[in-house]
Amino acid sequence: MTKITVVGAGFVGATTVQRIAEKELGDVVMTDIIEGMPQGKALDLMESAPIVGFDVNVVGTNDYKDMQDSDIVVITAGIARKPGMSRDDLVKTNSNIVSEVSENIKKYAPDSIVIVVTNPLDIMTHVALMKTGFHPGRVIGMSGVLDSARFATFVAMELGCSVRNVDAMVLGGHGDLMVPLPRHTTVSGIPITELMDEAAIDRLVQRTISGGAEIVELLKTGSAFYAPSVAITLMVESIVRDQKRILPVAAYMYGQYGYEEIYLGVPVKLGRMGVEAVIELDLTEPEQEMLARSAEAVKEAISTLDL
Ligand code: APR
C-alpha cells in the first residue's frame, strides 16, 4: 500500500488528507506539532469511512518517526498569511519550519517524493531541496495547478460557460509575479485571445495574480484551502497512479527556459518518478520578461536565507 504523509494538519493539510483518503490513493499519516489535533482529525476522518466507503488507514501523530518509509510527503506546515501580509513576509518563519521538516524527511523517508505547499512556495521548495539533498525531480512545489484552476474559474465565470471546457496555463512564481498565459488558455481548444478582448483578459489575469490575497481578505483569519488541497491531491494522484499528467508545478531548472538552479513554475510530466520531463514552451518577449522578473524575485529571496 502506498504511504502518504501530510505534514501540518491545519486547513490545507487536513483537507488534503480527507481528499486523499476519499480517493483511496494510499494510507495516510498526518502530523502536526499541536498535541492531539492530528490524532483527533484522523479519528474523525476514520469515522467518516463507513459512510463515504473508503478503506484506507488515516493516522494522526506528533512524531516525525511515523512518516517512516513514506512514498510521498506533502509539506503544509507553517503559518498562513494574515490580511495585508505578503507571501514574502513569511519567508523567515516558514523557512525554519520547512528546514526542520525536511531534515526529518531525509531521515525517515529518504526515498520519498516531496510536494511543498508552504508559502512563499518557490522559496520553501528550494529550502526543502537543500535540506533533504534529494534529486530535484523528487522535490516539487504545488503552485501552478492552483493558479491555473483559479484562472480557469475566472474564464468560465466571464464567458458564462462550463468550467469543464476551460484549460488554463500559468507559469512563473507563485505570487505577485506569476505569469498567466492567455495564449495557452483555451476553451474547448479555442485560445481565450479569440474569445474576449484584451481588457477582459487583463482583468482576469490580474484577478488570478491576486487570487490568493482575495481569499485572505475575505477569510480574514486564514488563507485558501479547498482549491489548494484538491490541487495537491491531483499531483499526488498523478504520482501514485503514474498518470504522467502534464501539470504546471514549481520545478527545479537546470538550463530550461534559460534558468539554472532555481525553482520556477513550468509545465512538467508528473509520474511515479516525480518530475519526469520539463516542457519548454516558446514564450513571447513580454512573457519572457515577466518570467525573468519572477525568477529574479525568487533568487533575491533565496539569497537572504542561510541555506
Ligand atoms: N511540524 C508540523 N506542523 C507544523 C509545524 C511543524 N514543524 N509548524 C507548524 N505546523 C502546523 C501548525 O500547527 C498548523 O496546524 O502547520 C499547520 C498549518 O495550518 P494552518 O495554520 O491552518 O495553515 P493552512 O491554511 O493549512 O496553510 C498552510 O499552506 O497554502 C499554504 O500559505 C499557506 O504556508 C501556508 C500553508
Give an account of the 3D structure:
The chain is 41% helix and 21% strand. It is α/β, with parallel strands linked by helices and 307 residues long. The chain folds into 2 domains: 139 residues, Rossmann fold; 160 residues, L-2-Hydroxyisocaproate Dehydrogenase, Chain A, domain 2. β10 and β11 form a beta hairpin. The longest helix has 19 residues. The protein starts with a strand and ends with a helix. The model has no long low-confidence stretch (mean pLDDT 95). Adenosine-5-diphosphoribose binds next to α1 and α4.
- Could you give a short account of the major beta sheet? 6 strands, parallel
Number of helix segments?
10
From the N-terminal CA to the C-terminal CA, the straight-line distance is 35 Å
- Strand content bin: 15-25%
Q: What order do the strands of the largest sheet run in, or round the barrel if closed? A: 3-2-1-4-5-6
Summarize the amount of helix as a percent range: 40-55%
Q: What is the CATH superfamily of the largest domain?
A: Lactate dehydrogenase/glycoside hydrolase, family 4, C-terminal
Topology:
Elements: E1 3-7, H1 11-22, E2 27-31, H2 37-46, H3 49-52, E3 58-61, E4 72-75, H4 91-108, E5 113-116, H5 121-132, E6 139-141, H6 144-159, E7 166-167, E8 170-172, E9 178-180, E10 186-187, E11 190-191, H7 198-209, H8 211-219, H9 226-240, E12 245-254, E13 260-271, E14 274-278, H10 285-303
Parallel strand pairs: 1-2, 1-4, 2-3, 4-5, 5-6
Antiparallel strand pairs: 7-10, 8-9, 10-11, 12-13, 13-14
This protein binds adenosine-5-diphosphoribose.
The site of adenosine-5-diphosphoribose has 27 residues, from helix 1 and helix 4.
